[in-house]
Specification:
Blueprint lengths: L3 E8 L5 H16 L4 E9 L2 E11 L2 H8 L5 H4 L2 H4 L5 E5 L10
Antiparallel strand pairs: 1-3, 1-4, 2-3
Pfam family, one: ABM
InterPro entries: ABM_dom (IPR007138), AI-2_Isomerase_LsrG (IPR050744), Dimeric_a/b-barrel (IPR011008)
GO molecular function, one term: monooxygenase activity
Length: 103
């Protein structure tokens, strides 16, 4: 199966870190229920608490595109300039191994 993998890196301004973490955390549960979401995992860099990373796998590019238009993302998207130290970095990847079992 060909699917879409991305790593999204989000860097908070130090003064907005906690607020951004709360907004990002709130995206996990609704995103995991979206059609085509294979996994949506939220991380923080232990050496830089302002650096948040999402590891995502989607069945298709269309599923990812639909995700980016979901209403539950609007509260986050409307405040990115105020919250972020730099623009979101989205890095597409091509998986070379099979996906791990989701059991």
């Amino acid at each position: 199966m060909t699917h879409v993998t991305i790593i999204g890196t989000v860097i908070a301004k130090p003064e907005t870190r906690d607020e951004l973490q709360a907004l990002l955390s709130a995206q996990v549960a609704p995103t995991r229920t979206e059609p085509g979401c294979l996994n949506y995992d939220f991380h923080v860099d232990p050496s830089d608490p302002c650096c948040f990373v999402f590891y995502e796998n989607w069945q298709t590019q269309a599923d990812l595109d639909e995700h980016m238009a979901m209403p539950h993302l609007a509260p986050l998207f409307s405040q990115l300039e105020r919250l972020l130290a730099r623009p979101v970095e989205i890095r597409p990847l091509k998986m070379l191994s099979d996906m791990a079992s989701q059991t």
